[in-house]
Amino acid sequence: MNILGLHIFGHDTGAAIVSKGRLWAIGEERLDRRKHSGYFPHLSVKYLLQAAGLNSINEIDLIVGVTRHNKEGTNVTVSSIRDELGYTGRIHTVSHHDAHAASAFCASPFDEAAIMVVDGLGSKSVEVETGKELPFSLRGLTIKEQKDREEVQSFYRAQGNELTPIRKDCTVPGYMNGLGLVYMGTSVFLNFGDFGSGKVMGLAPYGGQPGKTVEPKFFDVVDGVALTKSEKNFVRHNDLYQKRFFPDLPRRENQALPDDLYTEIAYAVQKETEDGLIEIARHLYRISPSRNLCYAGGVGLNSVANKKILDNTPFENIFIQPGACDSGIALGCALYGANFIEKEAPGRYRFKNAYLGRDYSEEEILEALRNTPNIRFTKEKDIVKRSAALLADGKILGWLEGGSEIGPRALGHRSIICDPGKPEMKDILNEKVKHREGFRPFAPSVLLECAPEYFDLNCESPYMLLIAAVKNDKQGIIPAITHVDGTARVQTVTKNDNGRYYDLIKEFYNITNVPVILNTSFNIAGEPIVETPQDALRCFMSTEMDYLIIEDYLVEAAGPKQLVRGPVADENKLKADDIRGGKGLKRWLKGLKKR
Ligand SMILES: [Fe+2]
User: Fold this and answer.
1) pTM of the predicted model as reported, rounded to 2 decimal places
2) What number of CA atoms fall less than 13 Å from residue 311's CA on the CB side?
3) N or C terminus of the chain: which is more exposed, having fewer CB within 10 Å?
């Protein structure tokens, strides 16, 4: 059975496939090189068919996508898939939150779980198919009234091959923003753009200064639902956000951060989000108790809040897959098809690791190397030993190994790495390689068995989705990854899941007595993470990285680099609208014609 999951509308489009018991996934942005790409995922489909060894789209038995109705009530997801791909087989569509829920549960290690989905906005309520009747809150509404309502929070319960929606909450007129949109609205207010929530989270710990804090009430949580009184969406209508919360304060322009004002806003929204999510998760536990919580939706990338949910609710285990945001929607669609439609054996597509991209052959790597001017490359007998020695010597390495990671985090297959023991590394990386704001922290990869010695963490965090305090006596040993509040966004690494990346850290440990390396995504600010060896070489030759490792090959510059001196795109200007509906749709159609 070959099942393809597609995310074709919105931002972060992409595809995932289950075939012969294997799972692959890729985001269109990795291939078309447009950050948060909203283009139809043609390149992703081609990539996955190749990975699975299929020759034609019509070898796919089932495509699962997300329902999208046009004004006439026609499901345009189905017609788009047929038109764009020439696919004649079965198509099934589900709601946006159903896809998120499937991505969280089916990839999890659990046989049963309660599931929480919290994001900006999901499907419109007319597009929500519960498989039964409409949620109670939506009954009796006209189609037009339902169109004004969009998924904002959903609870599910799952066991084996059954996914049961137990509660779905939508925005309602007068309350058009949930917790995720308030957070995104804050990102826009702070001039970080629609996709700057991670920056808000990184800035927050600089706030909370005595006498300077701000305390707006961003949202109310009533019966486990967070909503804010508002007529319109705060991301699209940020003036309403301003009027509601900070009427006397202009939106941030380019003021240096951290400061005493905007930083306190980041602190306040983060704190209220953490408290709100704890309350929401506790409510879910009350109505559907389980030892296990699966959690998805863009808010699930808030690694600070995630650890607080784990620490402050009765749930004993939490699973969040690395594509918790919309980059995991296609994955959720494929897993929905396999588990809940075709009812393949439960647990079959549990995540073994996050590396769902395809491998690159030695021939492909050599071709990329030979076609890149001004480099010198050698095939190393022991690339791990050589790389660890370079890291210990203070060098910055690009590291490409195996298939790429799903989701926005680099987890050791498409990473830039260096020694976290050198305090100056943070500034060097920010200025010379990543070209991003100096206040943003870098994350550590640590051998799992050594994690409790260095961090206040007693569980695995393989996807860098939990924040933990760095132990007091270790903060001076790994300063480049210790954030201003003494925490770090930890990736725990095991031999089983991470192979060579584990060996590298172990070898670095042998040399330095520190089982931790600094790991940041292999890209420049504004650019998607690299996918192919060519992408990696291009990024390497545009930045002041010292060496590049592609599998067994060690690459260094042998001539001038064409250095990029700033972000390749202004992240502050990235708007979801530009790459999906409205104006973006026209651009999308134009882009299609060009291909
Ligand atoms: Fe979402």
Assistant:
1) 0.94
2) 15
3) C
Residue 540, SS3 per DSSP: helix
The CATH number assigned to the domain with range 362-557 reads: 3.90.870.20
- How close is the Cα of 327 to the center of ligand 1, in Å? 9
Cα of 94 vs centre of ligand 1, distance in Å, is: 13
CA 118 to ligand 1 centroid distance, Å: 8
Mean pLDDT, 10 residues at a time, over the chain (595 residues)? 96 96 97 94 98 97 94 89 97 96 97 97 74 59 71 95 91 91 96 94 96 92 93 93 95 95 97 97 97 97 95 96 97 98 95 95 98 97 98 97 96 98 92 90 97 94 95 97 96 94 98 98 93 97 97 96 83 69 48 45
Distance, CA 298 to ligand 1 centroid (Å)?
6
What is the distance in A from the centroid of ligand 1 to the CA of 577?
Answer: 15
Ligand 1 centroid to Cα of residue 204, in Å, is 23
Instruction: Report how far ligand 1's centroid is from the alpha carbon of 333 (Å).
Output: 12
CA distance 41 to 344: 26
Could you tell me if 406 and 354 are in contact, meaning their C-beta atoms sit under 8 angstroms apart? Answer: yes
**Residue at 157: amino acid letter:** R
Beta strands in 244-393 (DSSP E): 292-296, 317-319, 375-379
How far does the centroid of ligand 1 lie from the alpha carbon of residue 364, in Å?
35
